[in-house]
Design a protein that fits this description.
- The complex is a heterotetramer.
- Chain A is globular, with a radius of gyration of 21 Å.
- Chain A has a 5-stranded mixed beta sheet. Chain A has a 5-stranded mixed beta sheet with strand order 11-12-13-14-15.
- Chain A contains 17 helices and 17 strands.
- In chain A, strand 14, helix 10 and strand 15 form a beta-alpha-beta unit.
- The termini of chain A are far apart.
- Chain B is α+β, with helices and mostly antiparallel strands.
- Chain B has 2 domains: 123 residues, Roll (Pnp Oxidase, Chain A); 36 residues, no CATH class.
- In chain B, strands 2-1-5-6-7-4-3 form a 7-stranded antiparallel beta sheet.
- Chain C is an alpha+beta fold.
- Helix content of chain C is 29%, strand content 30%.
- Chain C is elongated.
- Chain C starts with 5 loop residues before the first helix and ends in a 19-residue tail after the last helix.
- Classes of the chains: A alpha/beta, B alpha+beta, C alpha+beta, D alpha/beta.
- At the B-C interface, strand 1, strand 2, strand 5, strand 6 and helix 4 of B face strand 1, strand 2, strand 5 and helix 4 of C.
Chain lengths: 442, 164, 161, 420
């Protein structure tokens, strides 16, 4: 194994905090909770219930009772951390590092606790008021449109992912093949007209709660088939976008697509259909690791194709409104991954710079090794905390240098990208929208 | 630098507008004072500093000594202008000091004092009225931090707004 | 810190009071903004609505929060009363009941296209009378001979212009 | 690079980031001198600026009196620059001041290669050009810096009579001969009534003066020594006092009187501060440089009287000053700047502990003085001196209010107190 100071040091939170004093404590906790996980105590869970922050899934025939869940919680600066599990069994769904944090009541207030020491006060994010309501057809609204972190409405528009069908899933992916909202999809997995009607109704009802949502995220499994690459998938997005145009009454819909890599004319087509942002995620920059981690993307239609798709889309969506995501840590997964975190940093930051120069916003997430994924089966683990600190700083510096902020994927509308949290201090300097725009002076 | 925009001149000469000067101490901690006497004086903004041993007096000296920026904000209702500049001069004698002192005495009586008159050289003058800021920000970044229930986004909200 | 003084509370409660929040800009300067929504909460903290998430003022306040530093609040009434509060930003929120109350308030005052980025909650650390009379009295007491000699309390009326 | 030029200033700026450029320039202009170019000379002959030569401490012949002459220089931050012009000292490569586009511009040297900054001059006091009821030009009775009115009560120093004048001093000479100008050319006595009227006149200009400062040549007549001088000051201060309701911001620079004499001064007049200058702290050098003060008072008594004065005027209201640089005068002065600094800091510690405000000025080898051919120490010496004095005073909770940038303008260490 090549020499790696990051692996050798294996810095914990306190050591990382001392080594990187300018790195905000709350964002460092966000990274550390993502790596170690958080178990909520019964007392804190009750408090969360009182504050309307716990989602109790309605029982479904023939399905095991769902567990209560939370949509993360905030630190005092509104940095969000997720990975809060209600019990050991739920906690075991993912491979974690070290010992988990607990979320507990301390003197009547909710605190994140590390080894018995309260370290950061935490605040729950209440569920939106539309949860529990139903469409005219009787579909639970949250089955149609899930409320992600506080400001984002999430919409799944395909009940399948072709990669799983062809047994070539991305190796970190633990999405179950079938999506929620039964009855809204055809045999082929495409939205039915009822499904579309449910979407229109659910979004309109969700937005009756003022001051809650600032954007939508529409995602789906990948479907490369059709006359043109990903023709079927594009067609579904267009159908949904046209439905949403009716809801908003405007040509442009405040939604971004987390979708496959469309050819230039196809990304232009969904932009024309109203999408405001587009995210064809490359996931891994290193060519060899890309092939190994994302075999279906390699097959349909290769790394260069996925890179060029994002770059070409900037023309239609505007600088800063196209993002590509890196699953940070996946590029290290054995046996074909990069040898050391240092090598991984160099490679992934090279990719981030490449995209930023072309107006595509690079974003990263912490590798999530969840049951159901191949990495879980192979017992892969995420690299140490220090790798993520240096990666987040690197991404933030690249975005700062290129005056890029991810309007569609910021700390509030996605809340899983640490560089977006760091980027809050640069928010007023970014130039997004049409190329060549001067920074917003306000 | 300064050729002051017309709207700014109107706002700053309006006796009911609020004029504020923001500085920092040696640790960078912020400080603000309301300066009713602030006015345009040729190419500069001028205001009186009443108290010698005041925080803002010390911080203004620090700004002219060590080239630290000073911000002036002129606001009335939702009209607001932000000026970023540097301290150009501290007057402790001369006609301008005399004029500001006499105005201070006309306002507060014959025992009024006035430590100095400060001149600010504007580097940036921006209209930061609420609506101007909103449009400028949202023109450049239409997708950032805008709640979807706003009239400019949500059809239904717009219909409600039309009825209201 | 003990609860704010009556003078500060009265000024905060008075809609005619100018409520100014100023944050350091990290480059040696500072930026002042009027925040009419600033109010005293039951728990003794101060809170105000930040209209724009991506504004420089918001970034500056976050930078203070991350650095554990304080901002400054100036309350200035038309009748000359003025009060200065040193306050540390303790929390920023863009969801939940407190945020919703500011959001509805802005909606009511500015119409259906109003916008609130988030709400800052601050803890008052220090307060002082910033009114002209108080400051002049302090200076006159501290430095009795630091004044123009033609002031009326030094020179009888006859000798002055 | 040469001592005090712009390159040197930039170097000192980098080395001492807590000392602003304005204060460095104040020292440098005092050090290298300033020359006015023709446009600047023309501009200061304008009524708003023309002070004419200051007649309070020196004799000027008819010719000199006609010449336009600026008041103290003012930097943009309000710092005063008591620069020496070439009539008072000899300068090899002075800074120059030109006048362009309605502004006075300071250049690094005669080639005008580098613009240093925009400067200004203290506006001419409104009382200039007026006469007292006895017909005296008021500018011959008192001059004024930005906020300080300067009065000379007696225009002859009797230490000169026996050749025991302070060796740096050129008061009451004509800057040609090393002697006091004759009574006929330059009358010694100044009438109290003329002073009263001149003070009353300055008060008519709003915000023009914040302090009345008075000094004179030493007159040791009377028993005990200086009694006549003290009575003269009391008489004048009482006349001045008729302009005021009570005590007024004022400073008397005079020898270190006895406690009884100070009490008399304090109780019978509106005087608020006194300034018995020690000029140089080292005992051996005091005897050499200030022989008159040594003979008529003696260093130990001078120091004790100064400390005792605090009981009369209060902490922070007794000042004493050193002429920075004379302590290194040849042949008897200190051999190294470090030794000289140590001596001054020791003095500052001593005085500060006793509530006396210890300040410094920059020595200038004036024509007609014994030290006319002495060299100054390095400019950096003065930078180190003023930083040290400010820090020691701050440690003892003392501020030089009555000698600060407004009430005096001659002490760079006091200028540093303008920021917290």
């Amino acid at each position: 194994m090549a020499e790696s100071a990051i692996l050798k040091d294996g810095l914990g939170f306190q050591q990382a905090a001392e080594k990187y004093p300018a790195f905000p404590r709350t964002v460092l906790r966000k990274l550390d909770t993502a790596l170690r996980g958080v178990l909520i105590s019964p007392a804190a869970l009750d408090r969360a219930r009182q504050e309307g922050a716990v989602y109790e899934p309605a029982p479904e025939e023939g399905a095991p009772p769902g567990k209560p869940s939370l949509r993360g919680a905030f630190f005092s600066d509104a940095t969000l951390f997720r990975d809060i599990e209600v019990d050991e069994q739920a906690f075991a769904r993912r491979i974690k590092q070290g010992s988990p944090y607990t979320l507990d009541l301390v003197e009547g207030k909710t605190w994140l606790v590390d080894g018995g020491v309260p370290v950061e006060q935490a605040f729950f994010s209440p569920l939106p008021s539309y949860y529990g309501k139903r469409t005219q057809r009787g579909t639970l609204l949250e089955k149609v449109v899930g409320a992600g972190p506080a400001n984002c409405l999430n919409l799944n528009i395909l009940s399948y992912c072709n990669s799983w069908k062809e047994h070539l899933p991305c190796k970190y992916c633990d999405y179950p093949p079938s999506f929620r909202s039964k009855g809204s999809f055809t045999k082929e997995g495409w939205l039915t007209q009822e499904g579309l009607d449910d979407i229109a109704e659910a979004v309109a009802m969700a937005l009756q709660e003022v001051g809650h949502f600032t954007c939508m995220r529409i995602q789906s499994g990948s479907d490369p088939h059709g006359e043109r690459p990903f023709e079927n998938e594009v067609a579904q997005y267009v159908r949904v976008l046209e439905t949403l145009q009716g809801v908003f009454g405007t040509p442009k819909v405040p939604a971004r697509l987390v979708a496959s890599a469309f050819p230039k004319d196809q990304s232009a087509r969904v932009a024309k259909a109203g999408a405001s942002g587009y995210e064809p995620h490359l996931e891994v920059w290193d060519p060899q690791a890309f092939e190994w981690v994302c075999p279906a993307k390699a097959r349909y239609f290769g790394r260069d194709y996925w890179i060029q798709s994002a770059v070409d889309a900037v023309e239609s969506f505007g600088r800063g409104n196209v993002c590509t995501q890196f699953v940070a840590g996946a590029e290290l997964a054995g046996p074909h991954g990069l040898p050391t975190p240092e090598a991984a940093l160099e490679s992934t930051l090279e990719g981030a710079e490449y995209f930023a120069q072309r107006g595509v916003v690079p974003v990263s997430i912490v590798l999530w090794v969840g049951r159901g994924s191949i990495f879980f089966r192979d017992k892969q683990t995420a690299p140490p905390l220090e790798y993520y600190v240096r990666l987040a700083q690197g991404f933030r510096d690249i975005r700062r240098r290129h005056c890029l902020a991810s309007d569609i994927n910021d700390y509030r509308s996605c809340a899983v990208h640490p560089e977006a949290d760091l980027g809050r201090l640069d928010a007023h300097r970014a130039v997004n929208g049409k190329p060549g725009e001067v920074p917003c002076p306000h | 630098m300064a050729d002051f925009p017309k709207e700014f001149l109107e706002l700053v000469s309006d006796p009911d507008s609020v004029k504020m000067v923001a500085t920092t101490d040696k640790h960078g901690a912020p400080h603000v004072v309301v300066k009713g006497s602030l006015r345009v004086e040729g190419q500069h903004l001028a205001f009186g500093e009443v108290i010698e041993d005041s925080d803002s007096g010390h911080y203004l000296v620090r700004s002219i000594w060590f080239n630290r920026p000073v911000a002036v904000n002129v606001t009335k209702g939702d009209k607001s202008w932000q000026v970023k500049g540097r301290t150009y001069k501290c007057l402790i004698a001369g006609p301008l000091l005399k004029d500001f002192l006499l105005r201070e005495r006309a306002k507060r009586g014959p025992d009024a004092d006035l430590n100095a008159v400060w001149l600010i050289e504007p580097a940036e003058i921006r209209d930061e009225s609420l609506e101007v800021r909103r449009q400028s920000l949202e023109a450049r970044r239409p997708l950032f931090g805008r709640h979807l229930d706003r009239a400019s986004i949500m059809a239904e909200a717009r219909q409600l707004a039309a009825k209201a | 810190m003990p609860p704010l003084s009556n003078q500060a509370s009265a000024l905060l409660a008075d809609p005619a009071t100018l409520k100014v929040v100023v944050a350091a800009d990290g480059a040696g300067g500072a930026r002042a903004e009027l925040r009419p929504s600033l109010r005293l909460q039951e728990d003794g903290t101060l809170a105000y609505a930040e209209p724009f998430e991506a504004s420089e003022a918001n970034s500056l306040m976050l930078a203070l929060h991350w650095a554990g530093k304080a901002a400054e609040i100036l309350l200035s009434a038309p009748d000359g009363r003025a009060w200065r509060i040193t306050a540390a930003p303790r929390r920023y929120l863009y969801t939940g009941p407190l945020f919703q109350s500011f959001y509805r308030e802005a909606r009511a005052e500015q119409g259906p296209n109003s916008q609130v980025g988030g709400v800052w909650v601050l803890e008052a650390l220090k307060e002082e009378d910033a009114g002209y009379e108080a400051r002049k009295r302090l200076e006159d007491e501290a430095r009795p001979f630091y004044r123009y000699l033609d002031r009326s309390d030094v020179t009888p009326k006859g000798a002055r212009a | 690079m040469s001592e005090g030029d712009l390159d040197h200033i930039e170097q000192l700026e980098a080395k001492y980031p807590d000392v602003p450029r304005f204060v460095l320039l104040k020292l440098a202009l005092r050090y290298r001198g300033v020359r006015l170019l023709a446009p600047a000379t023309l501009a200061i002959s304008d009524a708003d600026y023309n002070y004419g030569p200051v007649q309070v401490f020196r004799y000027h012949d008819e010719e000199a009196l006609k010449k336009a002459h600026p008041g103290p220089l003012l930097f943009r931050d309000g710092t005063t620059g008591l620069v020496a012009f070439e009539d008072r000292e000899v300068f090899e490569d002075p800074y120059v001041i030109d006048h362009e586009g309605g502004k006075f511009l300071l250049y690094s040297d005669a080639s005008k290669a580098r613009l240093v900054d925009e400067v200004d001059f203290t506006p001419r006091p409104a009382y200039y050009g007026k006469r007292t009821s006895s017909g005296k030009p008021m500018e011959s009775i008192a001059t004024a810096r930005a906020q300080r009115m300067i009065i000379c009560a007696y225009r002859h120093c009797h230490f000169w009579d026996t050749g025991e004048q302070c060796k740096y001093c050129a008061f009451f000479t004509d800057l040609n001969e090393t002697r006091q100008v004759s009574e006929k050319k330059f009358p010694k006595d100044v009438e109290a009534e003329d002073i009263y009227e001149t003070v009353r006149e300055i008060l008519k200009e709003p915000g023009r003066v914040s302090e009345i400062y008075m000094t004179a040549g030493a007159d040791y007549e009377g028993e005990p020594a200086f009694e006549a001088e003290v009575d003269r000051y009391i008489n004048i201060l009482q006349a001045i006092g008729r302009n005021f309701k009570g005590r007024f911001s004022s400073q008397l620079m005079a020898p270190a009187y006895s406690k009884a004499q100070y009490k008399k001064l304090y109780e019978r007049t509106g005087l608020t501060t006194v300034c018995p200058n020690i000029e140089v702290w080292d005992e051996r050098l005091f005897k050499w440089i200030c022989p008159g003060k040594e003979r008529f008072v003696g260093r130990a008594k001078w120091i004790q009287n100064t400390v005792d004065a605090v009981e009369v005027f209060g902490k922070g209201n007794v000042y004493t000053q050193v002429i920075g640089g004379v302590e290194l005068a040849k042949p008897h002065g200190f051999k190294t700047e470090d030794e000289a600094l140590a001596s001054n800091f020791e003095a500052c510690e001593f005085y500060s502990k006793h509530g006396v405000v210890f300040v410094s000025v920059v020595f200038g080898p004036a024509r007609s003085s014994v030290f006319h051919d002495q060299k100054r120490p390095s400019l950096e010496y003065f930078v180190r001196l003023i930083r040290g004095l400010r820090q020691i005073r701050e440690k003892h909770g003392l501020k030089a209010d009555n000698d600060d940038y407004k009430h005096c303008g001659n002490h760079a260490d006091a200028d540093l107190e303008r920021v917290d």
